[in-house]
Amino acid sequence: MSARVSIGVSLKMYFGHADARRWFARVAELAAQHPAVADGRVECFVIPTYLQVLPAIDAVRGTNVVVGAQDVATADSGAFTGEVSAAELAEVGARLAEVGHAERRRLFGETDDVVAAKASAALRNGLVPVLCLGEAERSSAADAAARTVDQLRSALRGAPDGRVLVAYEPVWAIGAPEPAPAEHIVTVARAVRAELDRIAGRDGSGVIYGGSAGPGLLTTLGSAVDGLFLGRFAHDPAALSAVLDEAGALADARAEVVA
Ligand SMILES: O=C(CO)COP(=O)(O)O
Fold it and tell me: What count of other Cβ atoms lies within 10 Å of the Cβ of residue 123?
């Protein structure tokens, strides 16, 4: 377990261009002033639409905030109309690529094979895949853990070495009023972390939780997770700032354990 805590935000398709730019400016400002982000104890990443990736990179330049994409092509170049390659994302300065989000699986038919090909494409090009995994229907924590670990194995089968951030997102907790219960998240996150520790070539990897996450949750979960993947509840920069404060406190507590 590394001491660093990761806090990511996907903007999905919520913001238009002007609103997104205003939000990036606020995030850049608060990250620059945030001691735990400024000194690297907390990794902060934002994942806007493809069209917003370049303005986001411009807005956060000089801060420790990094930018990712919400999807990535399986191929690196060629006749793939509408796709964006990991090679180009890396070329312009994106650092992460979200892979296999529940909305892409459900609305756009992404299969486990497609998810695996996208994870490989990201790793092959030096991007960190934010690998979104989680059970589709509410079940026991043990069952959810088994399903999520199976998804992880499938997504990384044959993938190049490199860091991976697993975003454990139970599908039924996405877009909900509340996150999944803490005991449920802790059980699944532990199983995912154990699997990440078992497989070679994944140094620096971790598991973050997403699905109606917001202020207060990270303090409840503690070191069972390596951070959070936020959606709606980070649209208000003040809420994101509160989560970064919690992440800083968690990183400090973890540094004492690691030392
Ligand atoms: O899917 C999510 C992040 O990728 C979570 O979104 P919400 O927090 O809005 O449910």
Answer: 23
Using DSSP, state whether 207 is helix, strand or coil: strand
> For residue 103, which atom of ligand 1 is closest to its CA?
1
Domain count, the chain: 1
Q: What pLDDT, on the 0 to 100 scale, is given for residue 93?
A: 98
Average pLDDT over residues 130-154: 98
pTM: 0.97
The pLDDT assigned to 257 comes to 85
Question: Residue 125 corresponds to which amino acid?
Answer: N
User: Ligand 1 atom closest to Cα of 176?
Assistant: 10
Selecting among 34, 43, 98, 101, the annotated active-site residue is 101
User: Of how many residues is the chain composed?
Assistant: 259
* Whether complex ipTM tops 0.95: yes
Tell me, yes or no, if 183 is annotated catalytic.
no
- What is the average pLDDT score of the chain? 97
Which residue in this structure is represented by tokens 């892409």? 104
Percent of the chain with pLDDT over 70: 99
Q: Is 29 a catalytic residue?
A: no
CATH code at 67? 3.20.20.70
Question: What long-range pairs does 29-34 form, CB within 8 A, spacing at least 24?
Answer: 30/237, 30/240, 30/241, 30/244, 31/60, 31/63, 31/64, 31/65, 31/244, 32/62, 32/63, 34/241, 34/244, 34/245, 34/248
The pLDDT assigned to 233 comes to: 98
**Alpha helices (H) in 10-62, listed in sequence order:** 17-33, 35-38, 50-60
How many Å apart are CA 259 and CA 248, to the nearest integer?
16
Instruction: Find the domain containing 158 and state its range.
Output: 5-258
